[in-house]
User: Fold this.
Amino acid sequence: MPIVLKSKAEIVLMREAGRIVARVHEALREMIRPGVTTAELNVKADQIIRAHGAIPAFLGYPHTGKNDFPASICTSINEEIVHGIPSRKRWLEPGDIISIDVGSVYRGWVGDSAWTYAVDVIDDEGRRLMEATEGSLWAGIRQARVGKRLADISEAIETCVKQRGFAVVREYTGHGVGRKMHEEPQVLNYVPDKGGRGPRLQVGMTFALEPMVNVGTWRTRTLADGWTVVTADGKRSAHFEHTLAVTDGEPEILTVL
Ligand code: MG
Ligand code: MG
Assistant:
């Protein structure tokens, strides 16, 4: 499958999809406090997405051999890495970190962004984990320029994480994004031992970069609900994601207000 390049007009629509996702994050950030349930966050997100004429990209997302994703956002707390399912029985507690992943489809175009939030006061390790993960996202974004290769993004993310003593998740990756949430190419958050440097980046490529970073092992397992991915050792994980477009200058982040 080739990498689909987007025209300026298409990126205008992706910018709208991204802005809706950013509005959801803006609203949910204000709701983060002890006692709030992840189901309440989901309801708010769904309302905002639909109020802007978009639909939630994750709701009903198919999973081979499993149930479709049952909610409009993913909420992944502490040792949960990604794809946590919002629940009326799961409320935030002081010291938690929660990754909220939001996707919208606006006039057929997708925006995708995740952010990790601290609930009340978190410990020093949690703060360092969040800083390392967000820092690695920005390091990756800085490489998203014409003339670079895909692996330059992966390498920047991995280097940033390793320098801080944490581990990058390997089984889940960033991705191309456009009319579909997951398009070519896969954007690894590490450089594999074998393989080349990947394609050269071109104007009109659009990626969702999303490092998932663990305190301990990079290994993961999936819970019995078929979706929730957790760290194999039960230690915490953080996740930051933006959708961006490669331009003839600085990369343009699309999931912003
Ligand atoms: Mg996402
Ligand atoms: Mg994504």
About this structure: The first helix runs from residue 8 to 31.
